[in-house]
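Re: that chain you flagged

S.,

Sorry for the slow reply, it's been a week of failed gels. I finally had a moment to sit down with the sequence you sent. For the record, here it is as I used it:
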Amino acid sequence: VWFIDTATYQPVKKIDFARTPVKIMNNQTKQYFDSFEEKPVEVCFTENGRYVWITLHNGACVVVYDTLNSEKNTTEFVSTGKKVFIEDVATGKKVTTYLRKITVGRTPKIITHTPDKKYVIVSNWHSKSVSVIDAKTFKVVKTIEVDWVPRGHACTSDSKRLFVANMAASTMSLIDLEKLELVRTFGEVGSKPRHLIMSNDDKYL
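Prediction finished late last night. Pasting the structure tokens below so you have them in one place:
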């Protein structure tokens, strides 16, 4: 994971993950091949940029980089977190530390936060589920089953309703974020929906 200064367009920091071997199945050939858990895919920010949330595609987890403390405290998550090497690109100086790890479903992909910043939402491809994480406590508060291969999602501005695109099923699911439950699943949304955008007035997807 690279951090780039938007004023200079230059990379300033790099996070390298220690590698954990894992067997991954090729969905087309159904054959397993060697890979690593630490395959970062998507990112979102909370707390005005303090926390960087990263999905690890092969690790069934999310890791959280704290921009204020991750490089200062090297012991808090030794037994439960993910080992990383953080490099200052300008100086080459490296710090070894451990990032907070949150276990979610298999093959986590898209990650976003609700408009009210209460929850972080993760789509888990091969678990057919969405993980709802409390953004303050870093705990999964609910795992909600949806259709096959959930991918993109969009939330209404009041943070009460979440729509999820189910790529392999060609459907879309509606989740009530107040009750934390699936409300209904829509068919006939087109083949392999991937990404969702909510209009500013919450009227259209």
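What I noticed first: DSSP finds no helices and 17 strands in the chain.

Talk soon,
D.
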